[in-house]
Design goal:
The protein has helices at residues 30-56, 61-83, 86-112, 133-154. It has 155 residues and is mainly α. Helix 2 (61-83) packs antiparallel against helix 3 and helix 3 packs antiparallel against helix 4.
Length: 155
């Protein structure tokens, strides 16, 4: 047995192992573009809803609340993509599905019953005010997350 405190014990029981395996990055290649686009959508949706809720909430509470929800969803997806790892990948896919459902439901609702929305939301008319990015982004995100998961499994 070695009593020298300067010498490090490298026996198998004492070797320091990483606390957690390295997370698989989700933001390489096209993922970086997704993070950038979701980041822009976070800023757009959150800033829009904060201004609308703080200045004229009584005018269209449903529309402004839905814009705030959209901003939170975008923020969570952005965080999940940056965080990486398998759990984050699954969470991002679920959030992308929720986002797509929200865009389709709200988009259809605004076309069928425009009086329910005296003002626009991020998802109104399938995101026409945002160049249809709200309907394209979750489809692209789910596709990329699925494709990158397959590539990871193949490696």
């Amino acid at each position: 047995m070695n009593d020298d405190p300067q010498q490090k014990d490298t026996s198998p029981e004492r070797v320091d192992e990483p606390r957690e395996k390295k997370r698989a990055r989700l933001i390489g290649g096209p993922g970086m573009l997704l993070v950038w686009l979701y980041g822009v959508m976070v800023v757009g949706a959150v800033s829009r809803s904060v201004v609308q809720i703080s200045t004229e909430f009584e005018h269209a509470p449903l529309a402004y609340s839905l814009s705030a929800v959209a901003g939170v969803v975008y923020g969570f997806i952005t965080y999940s993509l940056v965080r990486g790892g398998e759990f984050a990948r699954k969470a991002a896919r679920v959030c992308c599905a929720v986002e797509l459902a929200g865009v389709l439901i709200v988009g259809t609702w605004t076309l069928v019953e425009p009086s329910a929305f005296p003002d626009k939301t991020v998802w109104s008319d399938y995101g026409i005010g945002y160049l249809f990015i709200p309907v394209i982004l979750p489809i692209t995100g789910m596709y990329w997350l699925r494709k990158s998961a397959r590539q990871k499994d193949a490696a």
